[in-house]
Amino acid sequence: MINKNIVIVGGGPAGLEAARTLRNAGLTPILLEGSDRLGGHLLEWDSLFPSNQKASEVLESLTADLEGIKWFTNSKVEEISRIKDIYLVRTSSGYTFQANAVLLTTGFSLFNATLKQELGYGIYDRVITNADMERYFATGEHPCIHEPKTIGFVHCVGSRDEKICNRACSKVCCATAIKQACHIKEKFPLAQVYCFYMDLRMFGRGWEDMYYNAQTKYGIRFVRGRVCEVSEGMDATLNIKAEDTLLGKPIRMKMDLLVLMSGIRPRKDTEDIASNLHIELGTDGFYSPRDPFIRTNESSNEGIFLAGTCTGPATLPETFSSARSAAARIIEYLESK
Amino acid sequence: MRERLLSGFDPFVLPFMIGMCFVLLYCLVAFVRLMGQLSRKERRRFFRSLFIPKNIARNVRDIFCDCLLHVKLWKRNPRLGYMHSSIAFGWFMIILLGHIETFLFVPHRAGLFYYPIFFRYFMVMEGTELKGSLLFFLMDFFLAVILSGIALAVYKRIHRAFFGMRRTTRLSLIDLIGLYSLWAIFPLRWIAEGFTANVAGGSFMTIPINWLLRSFMSNPENITAAWWAYSIALGTFMCVLPYSRYMHIPAEMILIPMRNAGLKVRAARRGFALVQIKSCPGCGVCIDACPMGLAGKKNSMDASAYLARQIRRNNQKNYRDIADKCLMCGKCKAVCQVQFDSISVRRLIREAVPYKLAHDYSYLSSYVESGAVSAENPVEVLYYAGCMSAQTPVIPRSVQRLLDTANISYKLMDPDGSICCGRPLILAGRSSQARELIRSNTRIIHSSGCKILIVSCPICYRMFREEYKLKGVQVLHYTEYFDMLIKEGRLAVRQGEERIAYHDPCELGRGCGIYNAPRRALSAAGSLVPVPKEKVESICCGGSLGSLTLSYQERSRIAVGSLKNLTANGPDLVVTACPLCLKTLADASDSTPVKDFAQVLCEHT
């Protein structure tokens, strides 16, 4: 088994964790990353809920020891073809790798918030997304954040929205919004922070406490209802229209900053990869596992495995466990061959 | 030429006579019932128009061009035009010539329905006469024309792509019986006349067949059998005619005078609408035109041809479903051969669905009294962005910037939200509820003292044009207004390099007939790229407010299809002039950016 090759596509948290697990089992996985750095979305995030640990620390521990892993950056996968039991993975860097098993850890992309034009992202400077907010936390700089007095967080942007043909929940934005709301409140204690939500899905361990603290300790106001329109006033403040469904009334507010919680969407190339590899997609556009309970890491095509958020929204701990279980499943598969 | 049978009768004419009498009786009863369904005013208008010489001329021309020659269809699709007109016009000519023959040779038989049809069975030719030969030649010529049409019709069933059609109407059983009997009529006539060609005379079609099959044809027993078969085919066709799509043949004779009398559709399934529904020949032109076809295969069953069929069948559930799902883009109406006003019919079907919710109009007064626009300092220009433009902030922002650049003093009608123009209610069939909104908006507009009202949403624009009575106020779509400013030199636009594909919003294009103003203005900013299907043929983006039940998945498939048409010639930019189109197309577009008309002008000032 030791001379069997495994190619992992995607060097984010799932890819890194799976590579480490396989390496620890004595194998030499090949890890391909399309961008110029390993880490995926962890690179763009400042801190992680609920513990507020820095994303960079997590990433550091993931990449601290890459001994025994052959990893390549700037290596976008161009084509995967199959000859009998061997997959040939051709990359944009010009290499072709032979693999007995391929693990897809291609992850997700954040919803493009400009598509919700009514919320004004890309039109008004003071409308930003959760990713912009994290960048601000990391760098401490944003051209439009100067002592904001009122800040709004809009949940479910690009998730649970029939209008953009996505009914699914992105799972992590509620907690992210609360984490970011508390952070910004710490930075600007005088600001009034509002969260516009549909439901607060605080299912994870410690998340309810976060929500409780947000209300009691930070004084964040939670408004149940969607923001429907945003316009800009004379002084570049934002006028928002929303609905408070608990009061049953439309409301209007002035905001100095509006943060859109962009949801988790499948990557654009998901469909191409799926048709290239003849693996099935779910109606939500993510890869479908062969079986929803037992064989969650296997695709509908033999020898192609799945881990992480390429199979749908997941929290970071879920992603890591999925990566480890995929590694275990790959070892089983290669031994049976 | 003299009569062969002294009695002038043979039992084989009976099937034809039964069918003929049935059709005539049916049409008579239907006509009387129809007149009962019209209001007194409509009835008077209709009958009066029948005696106005100008109208008579128009009726004759329209019946000739539309029903017989299918001029509209020729222009749209020559092959299909030939197929339909060869059968319709050829048949008409055969009947006409049959009557001329009867009048010329046996005037005392002119009162018999069947005589002109079965003329050659009853006649014997003695020697040759010039007028007889000429008539026979013409009869055979038109028979040949019809047979070529039938041959095309048969081929169309096998290979419709030859006619440039992707889809064609799926026929019901009764339509199929009608179709097959129609196909059978003319070959049977050919054979029947071939049998008697050596006795009654014939021409280049009938004499050769008589020679070719002499041994079979000279048997007198086969003669009656052939004429029986011909008569049975005619009888069958006429008996199923009132229940099939072929009812369009008599219905169109009423439709055209009614249309020329200026009648409007006022009820979904009665009066003028009923005539239109019966006039639908199911030619299938609307099926390919309908954007629903892009949403999925089964969605093509929502086209107008099927709406007409479901109404004819009185299947309430189905026709309500079809009516609710429609995007109301108006393309079927624009391409329809009989100008079936399916949009009004759909709206009226929606209106007939009871709606029990009480409406709360109390909020209206707060807008009227808020004094956002007041007469204290009246301005020339008022800008109404509308609720859809509020969802696409880039539009009102660009419009305001352009107005500022051109130094226009203007006021916003809805800086803090507005009262809806009422179009969504009208489209949903709630016109009486819409009246309340119209009243309040009219008061606000008049109290502003403006002379020009600019609207950036074609949906509102159409509403203001059609349903509002704004005396002394000129309503302009922003494309018209900016086009005017550019022409007058008040707004300078820099010529750019971009290749622009312009999407005609349904409500602006087919709805209000504005195709050129946006194109003129845009060509000042970039170069326009032709789009395969544009102007009247433009494909709805799928986002239309018109549909009440279409899912967002289906809508997005339509948007992708519409965008494919727009980007066919590889433009750098897709531009539209409607907030809803902008949103829908931008969502569907992966590579080509989609921008608003004002946004593009703004970038070039």
Quick tags:
heterodimer; A: 337 residues; alpha/beta; five-stranded parallel sheet; 20 strands; 27% strand; elongated; B: 605 residues; mainly alpha; four-stranded parallel sheet; 31 helices
Count of alpha and pi helical runs of chain B? 31
Oligomeric form: heterodimer
Low-confidence stretches of chain A: none
C-alpha geometry of chain A: elongated
Percentage of residues assigned to helices of chain A: 25-40%
Note the gap between the termini of chain B. Answer: 84 Å
Largest sheet of chain A: 5 strands, parallel
Overall geometry of chain B comes to elongated
Q: How large is the share of residues in beta strands of chain A?
A: 25-35%
Largest sheet of chain B: 4 strands, parallel
Succession of helices and strands of chain A = EHEEEHEEEEEEEHEHEHEEEEEEHEH
Describe the strand arrangement of the main beta sheet of chain B, using strand numbers. 4-3-5-6
| Rg from Cα of chain A | 21 Å
Would you tell me the overall average pLDDT of chain B? 91
Query: Which structural class is indicated by helix and strand composition of chain B?
Result: mainly alpha
E-strand count of chain B: 10
Helix content of chain B: 55-70%
N-to-C CA distance of chain A: 9 Å
Q: Whole-number radius of gyration of chain B?
A: 30 Å
Category by helix and strand content of chain A: alpha/beta
The greatest inter-chain interface is formed by:
A-B, 20 and 18 residues
Q: Can you walk through the features of this model?
A:
Chain A contains 7 helices and 20 strands. By secondary structure, chain A is an alpha/beta fold. In chain A, strands 5-2-1-9-20 form a 5-stranded parallel sheet, with helices on one face. In chain A, strands 11-18-12-13-14 form a 5-stranded parallel sheet. In chain A, strands 6-7-8 form a 3-stranded antiparallel sheet. In chain A, helix 5 links the parallel strand 13 and strand 14. In chain A, helix 1 crosses helix 7, helix 3 packs parallel to helix 4 and helix 4 runs parallel beside helix 5. Chain B has 605 residues and is mainly α. Chain B contains 31 helices and 10 strands. A 4-stranded parallel sheet of chain B has the order 4-3-5-6. In chain B, strands 8-7-9-10 form a 4-stranded parallel sheet, with helices on both faces. In chain B, helix 30 links the parallel strand 9 and strand 10. Chain B is elongated. The model of chain B has no long low-confidence stretch (mean pLDDT 91). The interface between A and B is medium-sized, with 20 and 18 residues.
